[in-house]
Every structure is written in structure tokens, then in C-alpha cells.
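Thread: "does anyone have the structure for this chain?"

Original post by V.I.:
We have the sequence but no experimental structure in hand. Need at least a predicted one for the grant figures.
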Amino acid sequence: MLSCAALLAGLLRALRPHQWIKNLFVLAPLVFARELLDPPMALRAAAAFGLFCLAASSVYLVNDLLDVQADRAHPVKRMRPIASGRVPLPVARTAAALLAIAALGGGWLLGPAFAATVLGYLVLNVAYSTLLKRIPYVDVLCITAGFELRVLAGALAARVPASGYLLIATALLATFLGFGKRAHELSAARGAEGHGASSRSVLARYSPRALRILLASTATATVATYVVYTLDPATRAAFGTDWLVVTAIPGLFGVLRFVHLVRHRPRAESPTEEMLRDPPFLANLVLWVVAVVIVIYAGRF
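Reply from O.Q.:
Generated one for you, C-alpha cells below.
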């Protein structure tokens, strides 16, 4: 019988708190609206971030519950808490339901529109886990939609606009990351010569050449969109500076570093998880965040 401490530790790992960094996209509208220093807005945005973390963890539990048999046949994923038995199935089901209810209940306090985005996020991911993840390219677009919902939710919670540039750049970046993940998984599966290296049946319907083209295309489009945004006269006038374009340099490095991880870390479980353990990528991410905040908010002081 599992001890209470072991069960809690396993459940915490199953919630994947390291993946909560993706929910920082909820804060993006507030940052680029130059309202990060407004306490009421910042508090609402922080609450939105926390609620999306609850929703995301609920989704991870549901996904692991649905994939438990496939994960047990996977050389890496079989060590996940639910697949390995460290978190019993009834406990995982109960935790997933409670987290979803808490996210929706808290979301309603921030407003019906925000709660609707949380509900949309949950419904989208249930549809993804049960059906859409088996459809090539549609599965990646589901990932993109999830990030778009995060940005929209952040704008609704903080009561600031989500610019068209922000939504387009987010969509392109999320699609780029999604295709990178699929390219990495396909490479790992082929490297293992099909000996149960992947639990994704959809990979057989992906073309390595098509993924390379899509990865390069979305990478280029992401960086180009961000550069155009920084050079837009309206952007320069809103921030009162021409220096935002400089932040495109670490942005470009981050994209290139992710491509490197996709191609050269075949044994990693996921390139998106690997980048969170990669010192050059993390240092560059911190540099980009600091540079953006300094450039955007320098005029406020």
C-alpha cells in the first residue's frame, strides 16, 4: 500500500507543475498593454494564471488516464505516476474532477467570459485526448488553439485588449512548437525502429519532409511577425521607443535553439520539456523577458 507522502508526491508529479510555464501566456496581454504595474489588473491576471494552472493539471490527469495502457507500453512514459501505479486510477479521476470544478468556479468569479474560455480550454482538450489527437495536423492546431485561449483569457481577466499581433504571433509560435514536438517524436520512433517507442498512432501519418518544411516555415513566420510588430509605427508610438526591435535577437536565438533540441536530443521525452532543462535556452528566455520589460516600461519611470 502506498504511503500518503508517496501518493501526494506522485500526484504532484502527475499534475506536471513544470508545464505551468505555458500559462505565462495568460499574462502576455497585460505586459504588452503596459499595465503590469497596475495592482488590480495584475492581481486579476495572476488569478487567471493560477486558474489556468488548475485547468491544465486537470487536463494532464485526464490525458494520462485515457492513455494509461499505451503509456505502460512506452519505455519512458511507463514511469509516469498513473501508468506506473503510484497514483491509483480513482484518485486521479477524483483529482481531475476537483481541479476542473475549481478552475471553472474561480473563473466565474473573474467573469462569465473568462469562465467560458476556461470551459472552452477544458472541452478542447477532452476532444483532443479522445479523438482529435489521432488526426494529423489537426492535433497540432489543437495545441495552437489552447495557447490562443490562454491569451484571450488573460485579456478578459485583466480587462485589456489582446492585439492582433499578439494573437497571430502566439498562434505561429504555438504551431511551431507543436510541429517541433511531432518531428522529435517521429524521429525518436524511427530511431527505435518501432519497438514501442511511441504511444502516438498519429505519427505514422506524418511525413518527415512535410514536418521539416512546416517547422522552418512557422519558425520564419513567427520571427518575422514579431519583427514587424516591433517596427510597426503604432507599436513604436505606443511604447515611445524604437528599441523593442532589439528583443527580436533573443527571440530568434530561442527559435533556433528549439530547432537544435528537436534535432539533437532524440532521447528526450519531449523537446518542449527539454528546453525547460536547457541552460542556454533558459538564460536566453530570461534575457528576452528582462529586455522586453525594460524597453516597454522604461518610459513609465
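V.I.: this helps a lot. Residues 163-301 form one domain.
O.Q.: and The chain has two domains: 1-162, 163-301.
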